[in-house]
Amino acid sequence: MKIFSRFNSIAARIAVAIILAIVLGFLTTTGVIMVASPLRQNQDDGSRQHLYASRSSFLVMNPQHNPQMLSGRMVAIVRAVASTPASERPKIVAAMSQPDLQVALDQAPTTGAVDNADGDIDLLRRFVEMQLETFSKSIRVGAHPLAVLDGGRRGQSSWSHRIAVDADLDDGQRITFTIPDFLTGAALGLPIFLGSIIFVAIVVSILTAHRLAAPIRDFAAAADRLGVDLTAPQLIERGPTELRATIKTVNRMQQRLQRFVEDRTQMLAAISHDLRSPLARLRLRIELVANREQQRKMFGDLEAMNAMIDSTLAFARDEARQEPRRLVDLGILVGDVCEDAGDVGGKVSYAGGRGIELSCRPTMVRRAVANLVDNAVKYGGGARVNILRDTDRVAVVVDDDGPGIPPEEQEKVFAPFYRRDPARDPAKAGVGLGLSIARTVAREHGGDVTLRNREAGGLSALIELPA
Description:
Radius of gyration: 45 Å
Helix content: 40-55%
Shape: rod-shaped
Strand order of the largest sheet: 8-10-11-13-12
Largest sheet: 5 strands, mixed
Structural class: alpha+beta
Number of helices: 12
Distance between the termini: 44 Å
């Protein structure tokens, strides 16, 4: 298992991709040359046919058919023979002659080297000529094809030619190089080889990068989803070893966060519930107070505390339910909230349309929008609601005509139980949880709630959510 995990690492995958690209490049080069070679009949066994690939298929590596390397061998022989006394030259020529490069020494004709070749044969001649210029500019080089004798090697490729390259020395002797099987397509060998390697390397690299990037993209999307939805399903452990370890760590972190949120919610609900009993006893004792003015004030404080507890319990219940996300029409949801606010006497207008689909926890989003609308009705004299949509965001805008909120307090009002000078109008004083709950809901969905004062007067509250 440990050995498998080592080979499943990112480094191992990249190494395997490189090796695979090289191997496939060689195989592709061989295949191209084999396809270009004709089907041959095996003369020794008339019942079988087979593909014949020349023994020089790997043109780049075989010096016998690589013009650059072959010309280098010829130039070395010419230099050795030209630098040796005439009496010793036959021995050197005999020692240098090989089956794939036959060397002969004779007298040069008075017309000089013959140059009637073209294509790859002429390319070989020019390679020899250029390299000999630094040794002696007077050496004349020619190259030409030779007729293949009847006793020539059977099964010879149609690209092969028997050629001769002549080098006329200054003293009148000629060195003749005979190549029995020269591939005229040799100049194409390097481009075919390099092109095959590059093509296969590109294909293998793209496939490898895609296979490596797919689980990383999934991991990035799941990590982003985790930031807005702790109830999202855990990641599937797949991909390289390093990524599997990271995914396992993120899954454990998600479990810890879920337990933390559940414990916090349960504790909040328990505390709020336990406060009911002492508040009930306190109400009984207030009934015995003789001073009616003090009794009225105490009952007012008691009602405020009960309202706080009710809001806290309602929020805790919503959190504990862990409502699943589903696709809803945000326009219909916001329109229903505005209708409900209007039914109880609020001055509310809605200008948003329908058909704005959003994946969310509907009850929570409804609660957040309702809190903003209630604040606008209570403190701004009315609410004008609209929905704005961008490519990746959707915003519910709630405008009012109230006094607004000073910039230095626009963040403070999101703190739980924070109320701006409730003594001015006790009838309108809330418990200070509306904006806090709205922002919590928005951030759980990957959005936010912001406030800004309108130039024409009043406050504009925006709840932004990812589209």
